[in-house]
Amino acid sequence: MSLRLQDSLQRFVFEGAPIRGEIVRLDSTYRAVLDRRDYPPVVRDLLGEFMAAAALLAATIKFDGRLIMQVQGNGPIGLLVVECTGGGAMRAIAQWQGDVPAGSFRAMVGDGRFAMTIDPEGSRERYQGIVAIEGDSVAEALEHYFAQSEQLDTRLWLAAGPDQAAGMLLQKLPQGGHEDPDMWARAVHLGATLTRGELLALPVREILRRLYHEEDIRLFSRKPMSFRCSCSRERVEAVLRMLGPGEVDSILQEQGKIDVDCEFCGSHYAFDAVDAAGLFAALAPADIPTTRQ
After folding, report:
1. Which cysteines are joined by disulfide bonds (predicted)?
2. DSSP H stretches of helix in 95-232
3. 165/77 Cα distance (integer angstroms)
């Protein structure tokens, strides 16, 4: 029997040192994203690394809501978007033009920006950090983000292939005053010996044993990961209400109906004139948006 834990994330900490870590494996979650669009191998692998990174970073934040990571640039790959909820549900998409040559991350996405958004549930305020795209890999770009926006020493190792994506994160926490001052440098140095093949194939315990067998490591219970899209007919209806009755009616007159397709999961939502009328029927006049001129 295989000891691998598929579609799961596990947290670990160095006992007596201000260092935490995460290791994630995405199997069916990753394949569910790939099944919805025919990605070229170069784009596929980049999106897989981005998904693994989002899962790792979402696990460092205690919140109910969504972590949204987005890269937008002027290169062959113009857009990468991954969402991960506090409960481990993920969705992702990439957009590209023409043939995408293999190369560095920066060459593939070009000049642009990296944005990370924390969208908590309820009335809590949304947070967003934006930095310029830097680095030759997804890992380097995210490490740059944390250095610029969060002032946290963070290291990532990411890998993706046709069927799997995986990643490991190390993050240095504020000092307590009695720790080994060289532990962070040692942990990063040993982490850098982890190969792509090992990251994709070895069980979590085996990775930690191989890297840190001389350290006192505490491994926490696994957290399941899954693919789930947050789109719904109700959310599409809310967007149409924001457009206002005038603009919705204009679309109906031009096209006869309104068709909306979710780019993340492929779900289709259709609205005819009767459906559109029902969107605004229950609203008070003061609640109906004014059509933009």
Report:
1. 229-231, 262-265
2. 105-109, 138-145, 183-191, 196-201, 204-212
3. 19
Residues 101/42, Cβ–Cβ less than 8 Å:
yes
Q: Which amino acid is at 273?
A: A
Question: How would you list the strands of the sheet with 127-132, edge to edge?
Answer: 127-132, 112-120, 65-73, 77-85, 89-96, 226-227
Beta carbons of 90 and 66 less than 8 angstroms apart: no
- Which DSSP state fits 291? P
Write the single-letter amino acid at 196.
R
Q: Model's pTM, two decimal places?
A: 0.83
Report the chain (293 residues): mean pLDDT per 10 consecutive residues: 66 92 96 92 95 92 85 92 92 91 88 89 79 90 84 91 96 73 91 95 95 94 89 83 85 85 81 83 54 46
Q: Which residues are within 8 A (CB) of 177 and not within 5 positions of it... i.e. 6 or more apart?
A: none
Identify the structural domains of the chain with CATH numbers, from first to last.
8-227 (3.55.30.10), 233-287 (3.90.1280.10)
Cβ-contact 229, 264 below 8 angstroms: yes
**How crowded is residue 220: how many other Cβ atoms within 10 Å of its Cβ?**
12
H-assigned helices in the chain: 28-34, 41-59, 105-109, 138-145, 183-191, 196-201, 204-212, 233-243, 245-255, 273-281
Closest CA to 155 of 164, 134, 26, 144: 144
β-pair partners for 9? 24, 223
* Cross-strand bridge partners of residue 10: 23, 222
